[in-house]
Amino acid sequence: MANSDKEAALAAVPSEAPTVFDKIINKEIPATVVYEDDKALAFRDINPQAPVHVLVIPKVRDGLTGLSKAEERHVEILGHLLYVAKIVAKQEGLDDGFRIVINDGPNGLCQGE
Asked: Which of 3, 21, 96, 110 sits at 20 to 30 Å (Cα–Cα) from 47?
C-alpha cells in the first residue's frame, strides 16, 4: 500500500484517541465553562463567531462523533444537549432569541455563513 493510501485508510477509521473536547472535559485544557452537569459541558468558544458563542458537548462520546453518526440510542443525549443550549441562552440573557448551529463533518465547518 502506498504511503498516501495508508494515510487515507487510517484517516477513515474512527479514532477513540482523546480529542480536544475530551481534554476540556477532563480539565487538561482550560476552558471558560458556563454550564456543566453529569451529561453535558458548555463552554465559550476561543474563536467566537458571534457575541455569544458557546459550545455544548456530551461528556461521553458513545460513538456520537457527529450528528451523522447518531443512532437511536443517542436520542436522549441529543435532546439533553438542546435543552442545555436553552438553559445557557437564558443564563446569557438571550431572551429575544438565539441561534443553534450543528457542524457535522469536514464540510460542515463553514464559518462565513
From this structure: 96
